[in-house]
Amino acid sequence: MPISGTPSRAELVEHLVATRIAGDVATPRENNLSHYRKLANGDRHYWLGLELGDRWTDEQDVLAVMAERVGVNDDPEHRHGQDTIDPELTVSGLERMAGRLRKAADGQQRVLFATGHPGGLLDVHRATAAALRAAGCDIVVIPDGLVTDEGYVMQFADVAMLEHGATLWHTHSGEPMKAILTALEREGRPLPDLVVADHGWAGYAGQHGVDSVGYADCNDPALFLAEAEGTVQVTVPLDDHVTSPRHYDPMTAFLLAQAGLV
What superkingdom heads the lineage (predicted)? Predict the structure, then answer.
């Protein structure tokens, strides 16, 4: 169901539900709870580049934050079946992110874009980068030759991603962002004023002390915990890989309009 132009808030909420970016999402409840438990048990794969220490060792505390900030079912006895993302929280997150993008544009700041979910969010980041570049921001070009255990850290269409076997790679790791920031420091180049990302790219940037905003699914609690603690400035809840990446276009249009970038 295409939406031409920029949707109103109400139109965007309806669109998010219809496309399952929010509302009754595809991620099942049991998967959400499994990830919350693994994070609480110290599985660093689910920490998304953050250092959570022993602050989130109770699975129920994680669930409480996710219910508040994402809109998942807050009943700990709901163990299987459907779970939800509140579309109003998604739009509110976009509005908060727009405020930080506006600050970047007003200050013509250095901004780095990255994604661990290129199959879903690449074009969201690309369009946002293009809008900020047009507004006078310096879109950070990453150093060449960066490698992690998972593959090569590359940049396409102003967005940093992981490449492995000639394929853009889905990753939760914070190591690619660590490689970028470490290389920038080694070369004597300034760090970004802002990182716009997801997964471990956003988490590690925030942990490193860089302003970080990003997107996260209901089964990726770490960035929402980081937002609650102030390590990440904004985390927008959404399903990060729906049936078509074009479904995110109205959301991107709304974000850029709210930021005054169109």
Answer: Bacteria
In angstroms, the CA 89 to CA 96 distance is 10
Domain that holds residue 243: 1-261
Contact 255, 132 (CB under 8 A): no
Q: What is the pLDDT of residue 5?
A: 84
Locate tokens 């509005």: which residue? 95
d(CA 153, CA 141): 12
Q: What is the pTM of this model?
A: 0.97
Q: What angle do CA 254, 16, 262 make, to 5 degrees?
A: 10
Number of H helices, E strands in the chain: 9, 11
- How far apart CA 225 and CA 65 sit, in angstroms, is 7
In 107-258, the DSSP E strands lie at 110-114, 138-139, 146-148, 151-156, 159-164, 167-169, 194-198, 211-216, 234-237
Residue 185 has pLDDT above 80, yes or no: yes
Q: What is the CA radius of gyration of the chain?
A: 17
Give me the long-range contacts of 227-230 (CB less than 8 A, separation at least 24). 227/69, 228/65, 228/69, 229/55
Contact (CB, 8 A) for 180 and 205: no
**How many other β-carbons are positioned within 10 Å of the β-carbon of residue 180?**
25
Task: State the Cα–Cα distance between residues 72 and 99, nearest whole angstrom.
Answer: 25
What is the number of domains present in the chain? 1
